[in-house]
Amino acid sequence: MPQEFSRLSSSARSGQKQTEEDTGTASASARARTQDTSLDSVLDDIESTLEDNAEEYVKGFVQKGGE
């Protein structure tokens, strides 16, 4: 009987560990999707700025003598 409890307890623990790993993977996937969405938003902003005034945008990064 004690051996049966030990086997059940150990299998329950491994199931709990698997669930925790699945949850970690799911939350990592959610974070990755959020980061992708944020990055896409930033890239869209840059693209729209370049469409409107690319020359002025680039001039902002040009170094002048001694800078």
Describe the structure.
This protein has 67 residues and is mainly alpha-helical. The chain has one helix and no strands. The longest helix is centred in the middle third of the chain and has 58 residues. The radius of gyration is 27 Å and the shape is elongated. The mean pLDDT is 75.
Brief overview:
The chain contains one helix and no strands. It is mainly alpha-helical and 67 residues long.
Output the helix-strand order.
H
* Distance between the first and last residues' Cα: 80 Å
The total of beta strands comes to 0
Overall 3D form: elongated
Query: How helical, in percent, are the residues?
Result: over 70%
Radius of gyration: 27 Å
Biggest sheet character: none
Q: Number of DSSP helices?
A: 1
For the residues shown, what is the average pLDDT?
A: 75
Low-confidence stretches: none
Structural class: mainly alpha
List the defining traits of the structure above.
single chain; 67 residues; mainly alpha; 1 helix
Which helices and strands appear, and what pairs or packs with what?
Blueprint: H1 2-59
